[in-house]
Design a protein that fits this description.
By secondary structure, the protein is mainly α. Helices cover 75% and strands 1% of the residues. A two-stranded antiparallel ribbon has the order 1-2. A hairpin with a 2-residue loop joins strand 1 and strand 2 (177-178). Helix 3 (39-68) runs antiparallel to helix 12 (290-309) and helix 7 packs antiparallel against helix 8. Keywords: Membrane, Transmembrane, Transmembrane helix.
């Protein structure tokens, strides 16, 4: 891959991320402009979009990593299957404009979150049972403890989207607080969690490329700004939301730019993409960076919802 090709790929990735961030919240912007009903449905659909992107990331990642592990444990077949079901449910929800939840979709997403939580426990057990127990070496080279958590987030976003559809249009509530505020806090916490996993793996890689600092700086700041915008008093709300929205669009673009960087990492390995069957497993994980974009899209939807509440 030549230097020119890499630059073009990076620009295309950033453009794709920005376009997806704007596209995902178009229903919310239209609802706000026309004052039409259904703002909470538009937010629910945006959360479905984020859930779908996370499920796709988990599907690709778990299928590759568990295949590399030769599916030694039969339970290793479960995450790809559940992620595929979650992806289907999220895509169906993203296309559904009805202000009513779907029981099957809701059940699938709850099942996905439960499967992700169980997988996190299994991965932590795998790390602690290795010689040396809980150590940096085992965290680096054992089963990635944060990987199944993406399935938890996908299920949570999808389940919240279904619950939001059943809330009244004039005053939707989640977890005992205004829906926009609750959605922003959930998305912000998800961004901080995914940034922590990226920090661990990039620390393992000794931050050998300056771009490896981006996920551990841009993404946590996005999560903090989102939480601040959710909790800010009314007199500071507009400014906080505007700055957080700008930063979240940058975060969404970063996810796709990271995909380009990881693809470049695979290309630079011995044999490049011609030796894809080995380098895809040995190189940086391609499905990981889009999880930032998924949570940024959810955060943008939450901010739009929060603005209508104020």
């Amino acid at each position: 891959m030549t230097q020119t090709t890499r630059v073009v790929a990076g620009i295309a990735s950033v453009a794709a991320g920005t376009a997806l961030a704007i596209w995902s919240t178009r229903d919310l912007r239209e609802a706000k402009r026309t004052r039409a009903p259904g703002k909470h449905v538009a937010a629910a659909r945006a959360f479905n979009h984020g859930s779908a992107l996370l499920a796709l990331s988990v599907l690709a990642d778990s299928a590759m990593e568990h295949y590399r592990g030769s599916f030694e444990n039969r339970a290793m077949y479960l995450p790809p299957v559940v992620a595929l079901c979650s992806l289907g449910a999220a895509l169906h929800g993203g296309a559904d404009q009805r202000a009513a939840s779907h029981r099957l979709r809701h059940a699938i997403q709850i099942c996905g979150a439960a499967t992700g939580a169980t997988g996190t426990a299994f991965h932590l057990y795998n790390v602690t049972k290795r010689p040396g127990g809980l150590s940096w070496h085992n965290l680096f080279y054992g089963a990635p403890a944060g990987a199944p958590f993406a399935l938890v987030l996908s299920g949570v976003l999808g389940a919240i989207a279904e619950q939001l559809r059943d809330e009244p249009e004039h005053d939707p509530q989640l977890f005992g607080m205004p829906a926009g505020k609750a959605l922003a806090l959930v998305a912000g916490a998800g961004l901080l969690g995914t940034a922590a996993e990226a920090a661990l793996l990039h620390f393992r890689g000794s931050f050998q490329h300056p771009a490896m600092y981006a996920p551990v700086t841009i993404v946590p700041v996005g999560g903090a700004l989102l939480a601040h915008a959710a909790l800010a008093p009314a007199r500071h709300a507009a400014r906080a939301s505007a700055f957080a929205r700008l930063w979240l669009r940058l975060t969404a673009a970063l996810g796709f730019a990271g995909l380009g960087f990881h693809a470049n990492g695979v290309a630079r390995a011995q044999g490049g993409w011609r030796n894809w069957s080995q380098n895809l497993f040995a190189g940086p994980p391609l499905p990981a960076p889009p999880s930032f974009s998924a949570l940024a899209l959810a955060g943008l939807a939450a901010l739009r919802m929060r603005e209508t509440e104020r």
